[in-house]
Write a structure and sequence with these properties.
Blueprint (H helix, E strand, L loop, with lengths): L2 H66 L2 H8 L7 H15 L5 E5 L5 E5 L1 H9 L12 E4 L7 E8 L2 E7 L2 H8 L5 E4 L5 E2 L11 H8 L3 H5 L6 E4 L5 E7 L5 E7 L1 H51 L14 H29 L3 E6 L4 E4 L20 H4 L4 H15 L8 E5 L5 E12 L5 E10 L1 H12 L12 H18 L3 E8 L2 H7 L2 H19 L3 E7 L2 E6 L7 H14 L1 E2 L5 E2 L3 E8 L6 H17 L5 E3 L3
Parallel strand pairs: 21-22
Antiparallel strand pairs: 1-2, 1-5, 3-4, 4-5, 6-7, 6-10, 8-9, 9-10, 11-12, 11-15, 13-14, 14-15, 16-18, 16-21, 17-18, 19-20
Helix pairs in contact: 1-5, 1-8, 2-3, 12-13, 14-15, 15-16
Length: about 625
């Protein structure tokens, strides 16, 4: 997954989790707050309605007092007058005029026992008013509610006035106005426990009995309303109610479904959640834009690297700012410039050199050769795969083929070439001598992952060596190289030592007491000793080096690859074989002892004379220390 996508996913996850936690927390807080606000709202409504009742009762009592003080009414109620008397007619006329004007709905004057002695307002009004004739209104609240009439309520005022009681029936518009102010959220309860309704309470159009039934669950609230505000929650938790007492003894009960508190909170939560989701989208879009802006420079660097890897060495990152990205781009361009220059310098050196560099990736099985490969060999690989490479397809001389194949198999296993000189056909169809030297590149676990090698053209040196060998450059007596030839051979080894990266050794062999053989036997026997010594040395050296007669009874041995072909082992073999002796022509069995000085050469800084001189010095040390042995004098 790309870095850009990872950053977008992380940013989205963080924003979503944050919004989700915020929404849950907000839901809890709003529900709690909404419940508190809702309860406070209902409590305030009940208090306001109680105050409205007080004003209404006070106004009604004031009107009662005014009516009771009218001349005719006051005179009639304070005395004893019969029906049809002037006082009776005056009182009835005053009351009827008030009814006609709409001030009253009905009026009666009655005795303490409930007997009506005077009425006004028609039979219906009188009937409605008669309901309170036997009611004793509380002293502090002579305004009561009578549950008479169909789907209506009546407000009555009664009080004792002299010898008679005066009862007045007012229209229901006053109480209706009080209830309507609550928009159907309030029951009004008079001091006697009767419930007033205008058809708006509890969301429906109910008559008095229905209103009473609806009010019945809240009686507990009303009974506890002495302390303001008293509250009530229904048994199922579905209803909330608050009650408040008025000074007149009337009570106002505000109620509502509890679910409406939560619905208000849920509505607020929905709104806030919608806003939060909108903010989430905005923040997410902003985060994506920001991430794209932040990662854009890195993708430009990536694109530039791809262009460079595909061969566009002129590609560079465009520097568009002076911030950290600009600094990174400048440093990146500088690094690329240095790499391109270094690579160009490397390629120039390789192209100017005759040495061919190759790289073998063991993981990808790909092999790459330096460009100068085509100057020496004509093979064109169809692909970079190892199976198609020159290492597999090259034409090796039949005498070297088996050895080369074995060494290549070892190389594939991570080992280096053991015998690294081979004859391979070149671009002209001729076999040339090459030296292949390799080095392994290991990973952190020590496993070989790459092989880097160099193919060196050593054909000229090898052919010079072969020419020297082909010439008549042997000592006629011993059939080994003469002094001049062995010196030339050693000089060739000095030239090849850097390419081969291996050391060689010089053995200076001197026959101990050689004069004894000439003096004791004959010069012919002495010649036999020389031939036996030369043959023994040649057999001991084999193909590991070259042997030459340096002069008189002295021989020079050149051992190639001295780190693999131990010169000490060869010297000891020579000593033992010579000491075993031979049968001379004179019939005597002769044993030959020699002193051997060994010098190991590791670089090409010394001349032939110096190298032989070192081995000669090592030989003389053996002579002085007892003869018939070998010793080293390292360079």
């Amino acid at each position: 997954m790309k870095i850009k996508m990872k950053l977008i996913i992380v940013a989205a996850a963080l924003l979503i989790v944050t919004i989700a936690v915020f929404s849950v927390f907000l839901n809890i807080q709003l529900n709690s707050t909404a419940d508190t606000i809702f309860r406070t709202y209902l409590s305030d409504i009940s208090k306001l309605q109680a105050e409205s009742i007080n004003y209404y009762v006070q106004d009604t009592v004031a009107r009662y007092d005014v009516i009771a003080s009218l001349p005719g009414v006051s005179k009639f109620t304070s005395g004893t007058y019969s029906s049809g008397s002037a006082e009776y007619n005056a009182a009835q006329s005053e009351l009827q005029s008030l009814i006609d004007s709409g001030t009253l709905s009905g009026a009666v004057i009655y005795k303490a026992g409930g007997e009506i002695v005077l009425s006004a307002g028609g039979n219906s009004s009188v009937t409605n008013a008669a309901g309170f004739c036997n009611i004793e209104a509380p002293a502090k609240s002579p305004v009561i509610f009578t549950a008479e009439g169909d789907k209506s309520y009546n407000v009555s005022v009664t009080d004792k006035a002299g010898n008679y009681n005066l009862g007045l029936l007012f229209s229901n518009s006053g109480v209706s106005n009080v209830i309507q102010q609550a928009k159907g959220l309030v029951f009004l309860v008079d001091p006697l426990g009767s419930v007033a309704t205008t058809g708006q309470t509890y969301g429906g159009n109910y008559n008095d009995n229905s209103a009473t039934q609806q009010f019945s669950p809240y009686k507990a609230v009303v009974e506890k309303a002495a302390v303001e505000p008293a509250s009530y929650v229904s048994d199922d938790g579905a209803m909330l109610a608050f009650a408040a007492n008025s000074e007149s003894g009337w009570k106002a009960v505000a109620y509502q479904e509890a679910v409406k508190a939560k619905s208000a909170a849920n509505s607020a939560v929905s709104t806030v959640t919608g806003i939060a989701v909108a903010m989430l989208v905005i923040c997410l879009v902003a985060a994506i834009i920001l991430i794209i802006m932040v990662t854009k420079p890195f993708y430009k660097i990536q694109e530039t690297l791809l262009k460079i890897s595909r061969g566009d060495h002129e590609a560079r990152v465009e520097i568009m700012s002076h911030n950290e990205y600009g600094d990174i781009a400048r440093v990146f361009n500088d690094i690329v410039d240095n790499i391109i220059v270094s690579e160009s310098r490397y390629r120039t050196i390789i192209e100017m050199s005759d040495n061919i560099i190759f790289e073998w990736n063991l993981d990808t099985k790909q092999v790459n050769f330096s460009n100068n490969f085509n100057k020496k060999f004509s093979y064109r690989a169809p692909s970079e795969h190892f199976a198609d490479s020159f290492l597999i397809k090259c034409k090796v001389h039949p005498e070297d083929s088996e050895r080369y194949t074995a060494d290549l198999q070892k190389l594939e296993k991570g080992e280096n070439f053991k015998h690294n000189e081979y004859r391979i056909k070149n671009i002209y169809g001729d076999y040339i001598w090459v030296l292949i030297r390799t080095s392994s590149i290991l990973d952190s676990e020590g496993k070989t992952v790459k092989i880097v090698g160099v193919i060196v053209d050593i054909d000229r040196a090898k052919k010079s060596e072969n020419i020297l060998t082909a010439r008549a450059s042997f000592d006629s007596l011993t059939n080994v190289f003469n002094r001049e030839t062995i010196e030339v051979a050693i000089n060739n080894e000095i030239e090849l030592i850097a390419a081969r990266k291996s050391e060689f050794a010089i053995l200076f062999v001197d026959i101990d007491d050689f004069k004894f053989y000439n003096d004791q036997y004959s010069h012919a026997t002495g010649d036999q000793v020389l031939r036996f010594t030369a043959t023994t040395i040649k057999n001991a050296v084999g193909d590991k080096g070259m042997v030459g007669r340096y002069g008189g009874d002295e021989f020079i041995v050149c051992i190639k690859d001295a780190d693999a072909n131990d010169p000490a082992v060869i010297a000891e073999n020579i000593l033992n074989t010579l000491k075993a002796g031979f049968d001379s022509d004179s019939g005597d069995h002769l044993s030959v002892n020699v002193s051997i000085g060994i010098s190991v050469i590791r670089d090409n800084t010394k001349r032939v004379e110096e190298i032989i001189g070192q081995a000669d010095d090592a030989m003389y040390r053996i002579k002085k220390s007892g003869k018939s042995n070998f010793g080293f004098l390292e360079s």
